[in-house]
Specification:
15-stranded antiparallel sheet; alpha+beta; three-stranded antiparallel sheet; 14 helices
Length: 600
């Protein structure tokens, strides 16, 4: 018996659930269309998001219903409630992934609210990104699916009629008001015995309590606190709990252009996010999460500074080879679908500044001291003495060749500046203070000379170019120039005029092919739009900054989640989802506009 055609066409139709080791996306039609097990970066067992039903999904919905009538997270949690109202009555489906003990569990609870409703569950497990159909059998009241290294067990509480058909597992049952049926899907390595069973109802109670207890620690108490807390919960959900690493997004290949080729794997940890993430977590009161991220950072970057990468795996893995999955048609036919990310091999000088700035922030914020942190910073600075003169691929990971990107040079200045300030502030630190001051001053002079266009009164994307870059909006935030400097004010206006679209900001020129070497266009970049709000606020235009912030909040979907980009023409979200960078921007801008802490 075939399932429904795929009715989900927009990224914002999805909601997120997770257990801080992986995450699932639940669509508007009640289908779990994306889930990688056992980690964020593992192969997906549900890949309908990037293909069709034959690539794996799990739908629970009333028979004949196509789309939910309402959904929301339980207050301050990652527990999702989806309501379905039919002519026969109303049911509530609650989705969650409880924090695991040994194995990951996906729990789906159906509860009758009114009347009597017939509900169907359609489960198609497809391991290895939708390419492997498992063998399914019955065992001890379960349905057990096995293929190669993967095994998954499905059970219901109470047990309901279940059968196999059309390469899937189906269940159908009715619920009346007050009745509940819970399903639990548990994964484990096929060579190991089945893990202990979890009580789905106890898991729900504990998950609600745990998330609400965690959210209560948020010390931000300004306007839009609900959106700030939702963003912090999302960042927590994107954290790989065993190591403290935070993935950029739980998905791969959600397109930056509908039907286009700008499709990348974001299930890794980027160093560029480090300072902004630390500022958000520390300012909001999450010291232990900030410390776990700092410790992940230290482990990841340990080694020869010449080998510093822009991103790493969840545990600090260095090899992230990029390849394509030709059997997947892509979200909205956006091909290719990619796994891994070749940008890992790029030189991006700005990450040295991000790392040094992050470790400086950690020291000043009172995070527990770690041995050899200062020695690491000193080694990075010594490397930059000569390396800073090289062209690089820049913050946005262009694949069109290296240039002297202005933002990269500014972040080299940040590295030198933070090292100098640390030595001036802490008498016990040893290093080449005079040499680092000289480096700082030399970089500053060169950027102001070669990276600034006096005719247009703006900094440019790279030396000698006419293109602009939204990352230039961070110049006052990192302290390179004061916010009232005429060159800063001119850059803000130039970025708004040349990169703005419907009030939001692209990351670079609309002729993206000329910059990054890829065909097609992309949407406005949400974190860059938050940076514009920060820059406006710092330059004294707080009213405009708050108006922009309000508009950005309005781009979140119905459960408060943001993707990487927004298309003002199509009025839709674009790119991998939900995007940590966007939610970090939201938190830091809220803190800058309404809180006591500064934004990053």
């Amino acid at each position: 018996m075939a399932g429904n055609p795929h009715p989900v066409h927009r990224i914002e139709d999805y909601a997120l659930i997770g257990d801080e080791q992986t995450a699932a996306l639940v669509g508007a039609d009640g289908s779990v269309d994306w889930l990688c097990l056992p980690r964020f970066d593992s192969a997906a067992c549900f890949a309908r998001l990037l293909g069709d039903e034959s690539n794996g999904h799990w739908r629970i919905a009333p028979v004949g219903a196509d789309r939910y009538t309402g959904r929301s997270y339980r207050e301050d949690t990652l527990v999702l409630d989806t309501e379905w109202t039919t002519p026969q009555g109303t049911v509530l489906v609650t989705d969650l992934m409880p924090q695991r003990h040994r194995a990951p569990d996906l729990v789906r609870i159906v509860q009758g609210v009114r009347g009597e409703v017939t509900v169907r569950s359609t489960l198609r497990l497809r391991f290895d990104y939708g390419s492997v159909v498992p063998w399914v059998r019955r065992a001890d009241g379960h349905r057990v699916a096995v293929a190669g290294p993967d095994s998954a067990w499905l059970r219901s509480v109470p047990e309901v009629p279940t059968w196999g058909e059309d390469m899937g597992t189906f269940s159908e049952f009715t619920v009346k008001e007050g009745e509940r049926v819970a399903f639990v899907l548990t994964w484990h390595p096929s060579h190991e015995p089945r893990p202990p069973l979890v009580d789905p109802y106890a898991s729900l109670r504990h998950s609600v309590k745990d998330w609400q207890s965690w959210a209560a620690h948020c010390r931000y108490d300004g306007p839009h606190r609900d959106m700030v807390v939702r963003s912090l919960i999302t960042l927590k959900a994107l954290t790989y709990r065993p190591t403290g690493g935070i993935v950029a997004a739980p998905t791969t290949s959600l397109p930056e252009e509908p039907g286009g080729v700008r499709n990348w794997d974001y299930r890794f940890c980027w160093l560029r996010d480090s300072t902004l993430t630390l500022k958000a977590l520390l300012a909001a009161g999450y010291q232990s999460e900030a410390e776990a991220w700092r410790n992940w950072l230290l482990r990841a970057v340990a080694g020869d500074p010449a080998d510093l990468q822009i991103m790493y795996g969840l545990a600090g893995e260095r090899r992230l080879p990029e390849f394509e999955l030709p059997w997947l048609s892509g979200f909205g036919d956006a091909r290719p679908v990619r796994v891994g990310n070749d940008a890992v091999n790029q030189l991006q000088l700005d990450v040295y500044g991000e790392v040094v700035d992050s470790l400086t922030l950690a020291r000043r914020s009172g995070l527990s001291p770690q041995p050899d942190v200062w020695a690491l910073q000193a080694v990075l600075l010594d490397f930059l003495r000569t390396a800073w003169r090289q062209p690089d691929e820049g913050l946005w990971e262009v694949r069109s060749g290296r240039r002297h990107f202005v933002h990269s040079k500014v972040m080299v200045w940040v590295a030198a500046d933070r090292a100098v300030r640390a030595m001036e502030e802490f008498a016990d630190l040893e290093g080449d203070l005079d040499g680092w001051r000289e480096l700082r001053d030399e970089v500053h002079r060169e950027v102001c000379d070669k990276g600034y266009d006096p005719e247009r009164n703006t900094f440019t994307q790279s030396y000698g170019s006419r293109e602009l870059d939204a990352a230039l909006l961070r110049i006052p935030r990192v302290g390179f120039l004061p916010p009232d400097d005429p060159r800063v004010l001119g850059t803000i206006e130039a970025v708004r005029a040349e990169l703005g679209q419907d009030g939001f900001v692209r990351r670079y020129t609309p002729d993206a092919t000329a910059v990054d070497g890829l065909p097609g266009q992309e949407g406005t970049f949400l974190v860059c739009s938050f940076w514009l709000a920060d820059a406006l606020h710092m330059s004294g235009r707080t009213k405009e900054a708050r108006e922009l912030f309000e508009r950005l909040l309005g781009l979140a979907n119905d459960v408060g989640l943001l993707a990487e980009e927004y298309d003002p023409v199509g009025d839709r979200l674009l790119g991998n989802f939900p995007q940590a960078f966007s939610h970090i921007g939201l938190v830091n801008t809220a803190l800058a506009l309404f809180g006591e802490e500064g934004a990053g």
